[in-house]
Amino acid sequence: MKLSTLLLGGIATLVGAQTAAPYTDAKSGITFQAYQHTTGYFLGIALPDDPTGNTDFIATIGGKGTGWSGASLAGPMKNALLVLAWPNSNAVVSSFRKTAQYGSPPVASGTFTQLPIANGTYVNGTHWTYTFVCSKCIQTDGTTFTANANSTILGYALNAAAPSNKSNATSSVSKHTSQGQVTFDLVKARSKDFTTWKGWAAAPKVQ
Ligand code: HEM
Ligand SMILES: *[C@@H]1O[C@H](CO)[C@@H](O)[C@H](O)[C@H]1NC(C)=O
Ligand SMILES: *[C@@H]1O[C@H](CO)[C@@H](O)[C@H](O)[C@H]1NC(C)=O
Ligand SMILES: *[C@@H]1O[C@H](CO)[C@@H](O)[C@H](O)[C@H]1NC(C)=O
Ligand SMILES: *[C@@H]1O[C@H](CO)[C@@H](O)[C@H](O)[C@H]1NC(C)=O
Ligand SMILES: *[C@@H]1O[C@H](CO)[C@@H](O)[C@H](O)[C@H]1NC(C)=O
Predict the structure, then answer these.
(1) Domains in the chain: how many in total?
(2) CB of 37 closer than 6 A to ligand 1?
(3) How far is the CA of 118 from the centre of ligand 4 (A)?
(4) pLDDT (tens digit, 0 to 9) for every residue of the chain, 207 residues total?
(5) pTM for the complete prediction?
(6) Does residue 168 line the site of ligand 5, with CB under 6 A?
(7) Could you say which ligand is closest to the alpha carbon of residue 177?
């Protein structure tokens, strides 16, 4: 009991495990199933209690420093809906990307949208964090996990180097210095508080 309490308080339980674990962002109070990489990269997902017909989720993505963090909503890089984000001074710049081949992925268009949650989006002394509601993001064409999946594999990718033009959301990026795939328990990602959290999303006051 004592040992598990100690371990749960630290990042040690998450590092290297290649699986996600519960994580609550102190500033928003939102609980995610999250993967954390040794570099400080993290990716978390929260889902509604009832997955039936659901198309939306809340994600948190971030890292340490000023580089970019990316996620594949299906696992692989190719033919998947990707999220790519990085800090720009005190703001975070983000876009959807998709590519059929390896290389800096171009911006993806579709009905999916991202809307930030203000107190889950911040740059502090060491890290940056972007928390957003991803609406109409869960697809049925294999480019993302499915609504009723109880478990899925998501991809992560990161580079400590910032893109060439940080204020341009469509900017190209250099190849990741770390990438991989992680198992997420989506049952554990579900919460009855999802609807409340989702209601906190709003257009940013300043970009
Ligand atoms: C110039 C930019 C990029 C290049 C050249 C590139 C290339 C590659 C290559 C060759 C792999 C296979 C593993 C390896 O050989 O390293 C890979 C894997 C991966 N990439 Fe990229 N990538 C780029 C950008 C991105 C971005 C922006 C994201 C996410 C937003 C991403 C997500 C992934 C993921 C999740 C994997 C692991 C899963 C897989 O192997 O498909 N990549 N990438
Ligand atoms: C985050 O903001 C929402 C409203 O936008 C608020 O209800 C919630 O309590 C805030 N979280 C924390 C931990 O203060
Ligand atoms: C900055 O944010 C990160 C990610 O949320 C957190 O782990 C870290 O403790 C924060 N640092 C400070 C100094 O608040
Ligand atoms: C998820 O788990 C529930 C409860 O065990 C089960 O009824 C359902 O079929 C599972 N869904 C999938 C897609 O495997
Ligand atoms: C960077 O991108 C922003 C927004 O797209 C643009 O206004 C600016 O001119 C760009 N800067 C350079 C040096 O290309
Ligand atoms: C933003 O970046 C894209 C991709 O590199 C480029 O095509 C576009 O011209 C840039 N926009 C500005 C305003 O610099």
Answers:
(1) 1
(2) no
(3) 34
(4) 333 333 443 444 444 448 999 999 999 999 999 999 999 999 999 999 999 999 999 999 999 999 999 999 999 999 999 999 999 999 999 999 999 999 999 999 999 999 999 999 999 999 999 999 999 999 999 999 999 999 999 999 999 999 989 999 999 999 999 999 999 999 999 999 999 999 999 987 644
(5) 0.93
(6) yes
(7) 1
